[in-house]
Structure formats: C-alpha cells, structure tokens
C-alpha cells in the first residue's frame, strides 16, 4: 500500500521531499507538511552540496550523507552519481574506516541486519524479518579484519553499508535488492569490549566448530529465504576468508571481494602497467610485501592470466615471490599456512625486504602489509636502479596504513615510478611536471560484477569472470592516460566503466553457460535497461 502524509515523507524509497508536485501533494495528503515552493532535484542537489561543503571534518560529511540516505534514497544516489570523485572517498575509503572505528558513537538509525552467534538455530526466522522478499545481493562481514584496522567486531557494519551503496551508485544495482549484514561472533578488541557505546556482543570471538556451524547455518538460511541471493564475503580474517570462500564457492553464488575483487582490480592495473613499461607481462617479476589472502588472491589470479597466455603452471608461479612478517616465503620454511605453499617455490632465506629486492630483482613490488612507510626511500631508489620504470603498488588502506605515499614514490624514483595505491592521493608536482596517482579501488570491479550477476542470475561466480572483468577494465585505459602513467580509468567515469565491465562479464557468463536466463539479442541494451537511475517517478 502506498504510504501517505507524514509516513510517505519518512519512507526513503518513495520520499521526494520538496520535489513533490502539487498534484502529488493533493493525492497523498502532503499539503501543509511541506513548504509551498515546489523544487526540482537540481535545486535539492544545490542544497545538499552546500550543506556538505559547510562541514570540514570527513566523518561529519559521512554522517550527513547517511542521514540523507535515511530520508531520501533517490536524492542520495543522485548526489553520489553526479560527483563520484567528491563523494566516493566520503561514503567509502578512506572515511568509512573512521566511520567503522566510531560506529557505536555515531550510530543513529540501524541499516541492514545484525545477526549474532546467539541467534544460532534461528537465523532463517531472523532473515524473514527483512521487509523485502526478493534480495539479490548481500555484503557480509564478521568484522575481524576491517580494512587495515583489524578487529572491529560489529562496528565493521560500515563496510557492507558502504559497499552496497557503491553497487547502486557505480553500477546501477537497484538498492531495494541489496542487504548489508554483519555476523557478530564477538570481538577480541579490548577497547571495544570496554566501550559502553559499543553495540555488539561484549565477548571474545568464538572460534572453531561453533563458528563454522554459525557460518554454515547462515549460508543455508540466506539461500533458503532469498533463493536468488549472491553473497559477497567482506573483511574476514585471512585464514577464515580463504577457508569460507573455498568451502562455499562451488555450492552457492558467492565471492570474496578482498581476495577476488582486489585481485581483479590490481591485476588489471598490472596489465596496464606492463603497457606503460613496454615489458610484456610474462617478463615481469612480482614481489609482494604481505602474504595474506589478498596477496595470494592477486598472485593466483595473475597466474591464471599467464597460463591463458601460454605459460605452464610452473612458469606462471615462478614469476611471483611473497614476503611475510617472518621473511621470504620459501621451501626452507616449515611454518607456512596452506594458502602460501604454492608460492614456496624458491630456496631464498631472507628476513629483510630490501635484501629480498636485491636477490629477486623484481620489476614490481606490491604492498599488502598494512605497514605504513614500509616502502622506504632506500627501497624505492633501489627499485629505480633496477628498472627503467619500476612498478610501485602500495595497496594497503586506509591511507594511514599505506606502504608509501604517491609523493614519496614519485620523488624518490625521480618520476620513474608507475604508481597505484589502495587509498587515494592528490596529484604530485615534481620539476614542473604533474603526476596523477592511480587508485586501485575495488569499486571498479565488484559493482559491475554484481550487475552482471543480477542480469544473468548466474549460477556461480568464478575466477574466470574476474579475469574477464580485469581485461575489460584495463582495455578502458586511454592512450593519453597510458602516456601519463595512469593505470586506471578516471573515477569520474566510473558508471560508464562499470557498465562496460558488466557487459563484458555478462557476455562471458552467457558464453560459458553460467546464466539461468535466455540470452538476449542485444546484451548492451539489456544491461542498460536494468540499471537503476536516481530519478523521481
């Protein structure tokens, strides 16, 4: 039933605020509840931008925008879509990191679903409390490894909320089809446990069999309640992230953005960096600082790309070296976790990253360590001595955990570095030349993947779909961007970029019999027709 009067003004999916026409005001009993002047969305956008610009602290801008989402969904998404360069860093990285840290202190209105381990045995019933019966996407976290910030428990809910906003803003996935979820299994963050405003379970994290049963019941229940759901796993701790993905990827429609999404966008950047350097992909040598789920995901996906180019599996793996907190991942180590073993393909014994560079002589170094400043002046200068165009990718985020800044990379390499980071950095001027740092943001990939899955009702999400996405993304970097050392398309074009990736992935899904609908004659028009447009009806 269509709400009227005061209830309509408090329904974010239907509220137009001051843009309700006189006819609508008469029909829905809104006269007297709004100022008489009927405004256009253009005027409303002017007001929103002015109000945001009055705020100086990013977290306050974030709070304002989430309140806008709470009362006028259409205006919120139009605001983001009209200026993604301005607003994406506010609703997602880096500001979302602060929002998660302060989640209990800035909490106003609940969004999504909060499912704790105490609900075991009753999860399906809880999910049926959600008012929308046809949910297609959920971003789910247990809050144990939020960005580079560690265990934030239930406060990690800011990540699913932010990511699903980007599904809509960047790729046009209808917001009504999305559901953010946090699985609360406790937290080992003592500060949160002692914080009177922390709204999650105040107990240590549950591990082992009880935790595994919790995840199993959740997966079974959400597929029972929402049969067409696609699960995006987000910010689980490394071992759990890999284990959960391996356990469910062939059972249900799901993917892990930290593993597969990160891999796809960073590998796309590496493909483009190869074009900039003039060195073929198969001739590069990649050294990773950090050997967690994200590093392994990037390396493993790229080995598949190399195998598609004709290399053997052994040849592909031989292009990668991993360095963790105990040193080089090598055959001499007896303490390696299972996911690192495929990369223990060398005899190097070294516990100093600078020395590892001297031994390996990489063409590219990638940082996923969350160690601020780990790429020192000496390291970048050495990379610049070894390579005419060294590839420097400090991928950790938020900005406070980046292995180096753009200014450091360009300055210490004397402008030679091919640079991309996990967090945004401003342009850098050196000797009269301006460098524009690229950001390897997963937002290039996961919203487009979501749109393709929505369009096709894909049975599964596999690595080959992410390979199709990374090639599509790299192909969209223009010749002029290549000449300027830029490895990703401009963020201001994100909606067009996501649309093209979704089209290419959709074609792959149909070509490989992964769809559950009949192939349309014109896939491009089909995709465009599905995409949500933030307009008043």
Q: What's the pLDDT, averaged over the residues?
A: 96
H/I helix tally: 24
Main β-sheet, spatial strand arrangement: 8-7-6-9-10-11-14
Q: Name the overall outline.
A: globular
Helix content: 40-55%
Structural class: alpha/beta
- Rg from C-alpha positions? 23 Å
Uncertain regions spanning at least 5 consecutive residues: none
Based on DSSP secondary structure assignment, what is the total number of beta strands? Answer: 14
Largest sheet: 7 strands, mixed
Tell me the strand percentage band: 5-15%
The first-to-last residue Cα distance is: 16 Å
**Assembly of the depicted chains:** single chain
What structural keywords apply?
seven-stranded mixed beta sheet; 45% helix; 537 residues; alpha/beta; five-stranded parallel beta sheet
Would you mind describing this structure in some detail?
By secondary structure, this protein is of the alpha/beta class. It has 24 helices and 14 strands. A seven-stranded mixed sheet has the order 8-7-6-9-10-11-14, sandwiched between helices. It has a five-stranded parallel sheet with strand order 1-3-2-4-5, sandwiched between helices. The longest helix is centred in the middle third of the chain and has 21 residues, at 257-277.
